[in-house]
Amino acid sequence: MSGETDHGLVLVVDDDETVRDVVCRYLRLAGFAVDVAGTGPAALERFAARRPDLVVLDVMLPGLDGFEVCRRLREPDPGEPGVPVVLLTALGEEEDRIAGLRLGADDYVTKPFSPRELSLRVASVLRRSRGAPGVAAPTELTDGDLRLDLAARTASLAGDPVALTAREFDLLAFFLSHPATAYSRTELLERVWGWDFGDLSTVTVHVRRLREKIERDPAAPERVVTVWGVGYRYDARPG
């Protein structure tokens, strides 16, 4: 974490100078410190030089597109919690949004967008990635050989680190806290993402990614199971 403000440091990556200026102005008004980059390579350089608390990342970038930048930011680093990523995608480009979520993006906002909405989304993602302050809660969640350290926001399976994005961590923590209960995708979107509307495929993609990381056979999941006609349920391991 940057420690520059109570709200944190946001890296804004967009090749449109006007968009960058507007986004930065609103984020600063909301209390964030801001760093900027206009290309994919520059984004990676700024990220390495000054690790932010969150990245706002445009998909269409010169040099390296936003997908490749996101992929590189999401390369497993078990010793360091992942930095949340909010993608900026073109209106109506559903495949872009799904591709970004599959790469580990935590949220997305479609262009044209409201800068105020974007700043609220940034605040929401950061709040969830850090956990709610002042709320009494367990510091660890376990299920057999699966362990979540809620304070450090790290996960391990059979003693090996599991690299989770901020949103994947939140989803798994929710499942572990509410086993044996079926939830619809709409309910998960509300309770994990904090959205009262949105693309339900967001949940589907995150469940798929989570299964790839914690299930012995993601095609035949034993922990995060599908409840047909309803949604998903977490089944704790016996014993």
How would you characterize this protein structure?
The chain has 239 residues and is an alpha/beta fold. The protein folds into 2 domains: 9-130, Rossmann fold; 140-234, Arc Repressor Mutant, subunit A. Helices cover 38% and strands 22% of the residues. It has 8 helices and 12 strands. The strands form 3 sheets. The chain has a 5-stranded parallel beta sheet, sandwiched between helices. Strand 6 (140-143) and strand 7 form a beta hairpin. The longest helix is centred in the middle third of the chain and has 16 residues, at 115-130. The radius of gyration is 18 Å and the shape is globular. The chain starts with 8 loop residues before the first strand and ends in a 5-residue tail after the last strand. The model is unreliable at 132-137 (pLDDT under 50).
Furnish the topology, listing elements before pairings.
Blueprint: E1 9-13, H1 17-29, E2 33-37, H2 40-49, E3 54-58, H3 66-73, E4 85-90, H4 94-102, E5 107-111, H5 115-130, E6 140-143, E7 146-149, E8 154-157, E9 160-162, H6 166-177, E10 182-184, H7 185-193, H8 201-214, E11 224-227, E12 231-234
